[in-house]
Amino acid sequence: MALKTTIITGATSGIGQETALELAAQGHALYLLVRNTPKGERLKNQIIGKTGNKEIYVVRCDLADLQSVREAADELNQKLFAINTLINNAGGVFQEREVSKNGFEMTFVTNHLGHFLLTNSLMPLLQKGQARIINVSSEAHKWGKPRFDDLQWQQTYNGFKAYGMSKLFNIYFAQSLAEKYGDKGILAFSLHPGTVKTGFGAGIKGLGKVLFLLATPFMVTVKQATETSVFLATAPRLDQYNGAYFKKKKKANTSAIATDTESRNKLWAISEKLLSRYLIWPVINAE
Fold first, then answer.
1. Residue 187: beta bridge partners?
2. How many CB atoms lie within 10 A of CB 45?
3. pLDDT score at 197
């Protein structure tokens, strides 16, 4: 039986690293999309050493740099015939407002726009592989609202709200992918991994730091946090849940605003417009 070809972003630390290790152990051919290629190569060697799976590859991809995302997608389109699983795992939270080299607020571009560009740029391969697309979201989406009048947070910046909005957008993106490509064999999901004992929130200060410390007794291990991603990547018969949000390997409820079809469609249209110089429409819309 042919190996499953799986792409994962943000694989060099935390949940991404453990997810990569778990899937490699199950025989997936893994393409690790990483910002730091030396670190990615070290991880590759660790995975091969631990699992014996030599089908591990490193591709440079900085999700905050849209040209880098485009180049990574081009490389994968040239190398691969099909993709069976895409795990949009990478993410970031920024205490202070930062702007990417392309002029986008960092939370928005890292957590949403970069993955939107990557996924759509790989869509022909995803369709060929009857792929599952898995967006790592968060329960933080429940404090997020779509600020379509200020997606770049230029008026006032709040790191937690920016993060919450981006996690809401992860859910919208999965729903839209299921709606647009479900009849072409694509399954798309979003998930909450749990509040994880990693260095993810190391830069948080003030009230956010207090809330983070209060949550510590309820945090899960990194291994526990990977369980839902691995489940969605490997479990059979998930067609009936296409577009759904998962938690602890089960379909879960989202916030009310996460079911707003008008906002979801608006996000897709705005994302297309913002990324028009990087998207190649004849490729993306290929049947």
1. 132
2. 11
3. 59
Catalytic residue among 31, 57, 163, 181: 163
Residue burial 19-35, b: 16+ Cβ < 10 Å; e: rest: bbbbbbeeebbbbbbbb
- The structure tokens listed for 281 are 């429409």
Amino acid at 280: I
Worst-scoring range by mean pLDDT, 25-39, 217-231, 246-260? 217-231
Query: HSE of 249 in the Cβ direction (CA atoms, 13 Å)?
Result: 10
| Nearby residues of 106 by Cβ (< 8 Å), 6 or more positions away | 64, 92, 94, 97, 98, 99, 100
Alpha-carbon gap, residue 136 to 152, rounded angstroms: 21
CA distance 258 to 68: 30
Rounded distance between C-alpha atoms, residue 248 and residue 64, angstroms: 29
Told to judge if 181 belongs to the known catalytic residues of this protein, a careful annotator would answer no
Torsion over CA of 274, 275, 277 and 278, rounded to 10 degrees? 160
- Single-letter amino acid code for the residue at 99: V
Contact 53, 24 (CB under 8 A): yes
* Amino acid in position 82: A
Sign, Cα dihedral of 141, 145, 151, 155 = negative
Half-sphere exposure of 141 (CA within 13 A, CB side): 31
Rounded CA Rg of the chain:
18
pTM greater than 0.85: yes
- Among 18, 25, 21, smallest CA distance to 3 is for 25
**DSSP state string for 202-241:** TT--HHHHHHHHHHGGG-B-HHHHHHHHHHHHH-S--GGG
Neighbours of 248 (CB within 10 A): 14
DSSP tag of 145: -
Closest CA to 106 of 72, 157, 146: 157
Q: What is the pLDDT of residue 205?
A: 54
Overall residue count recorded for the chain in this entry: 287
